[in-house]
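Q: I'm writing up a methods section and want to include an example of the input and output format. Could you take the sequence below and give the corresponding predicted structure tokens, formatted cleanly so I can copy it straight into the document?
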Amino acid sequence: MPTYTDEAVVLRTHKLGEADRIITVLTRSHGKLRAVAKGVRRTSSKFGGRLEPFSHVDLQFATGRTLDVITQAVTRHSYAEPLAHDYELYTTGQVMIETADRLVAEEGQPAPRQYHLLLGAIQALTSGTSDGPRPPAMVMDSYLLRAISVAGYAPNLTDCARCGEAGPHEAFSPVMGGLVCRHCRPPGSAQVDPETIAYLVALVGGDWPATRTATDIMVRRGSGLAAAFLSWQLERGLRSLRHVERA
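A: Here is the clean output for your methods example:
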């Protein structure tokens, strides 16, 4: 069978038969793929724990009739282990990989920007950002806003999302797509202060130095707005996000 290789982040796994698993991965060059890992559930498996969610791996695939088969897996970074021992890190990480799974819907289509965003977010979650450590919620929200923007649904954080009137504006509506002026503001819009808007702009731009002075209340408000915006754009909420809120 023809073979090919790619670098990937493992998103999720499903049992198949008595000893196999279907592994869903987001790859650098081939987008999202589902492939079979034969015998991975046996204690003698050659894959060991390399194909767990959050793992950053080099994979070799053999082309199959319906699903390709993973024939080799080499660990680049084992992010699963540090995340598994911290509930807050683990649940925020679950939100990120579920988001990537939802946003990259079509299998086999290259999505390099989504891949690099996810990998960078997992690295920031476990090792800190380029400007030092940040709260897990902040890392998660930055990833969510940037990933949804790459998918073509960037929130409008300057002008009115409906009529285009120049800002600043004081209301945010996920339904309208971002900030709205007082004339276009629909019922249920959230009141938002200029500091929180600037914080969201920094998250979307990946400007970590600009988030140094963010207060706890700004992070909480930003998280609420990011979650509401993402849920509306995805048409249904993320299951894993409920666990973060409970935490």
